[in-house]
Amino acid sequence: MCQHQPPCPSAESADREAAHLVAHHPEQGWSLLCNGVLLFEDTGELLPDGQVIDPHRSMGTGQVVTAA
Prior knowledge:
The chain is an all-beta fold. Helix content is 0%, strand content 24%.
């Protein structure tokens, strides 16, 4: 699918998120990468083969809330 030189990482690659954007729809919360991966705003992914990758957003210490 990718026509870039050098080619973008494949959808099976660990660095698949480094592929070029083909379509970007922030109002809908998703982007399509040239390797066929749908990347969602919450960092979840849908691979071309239908495999779902759960969101993997890291929680920094500034985002941790403790209940009183």
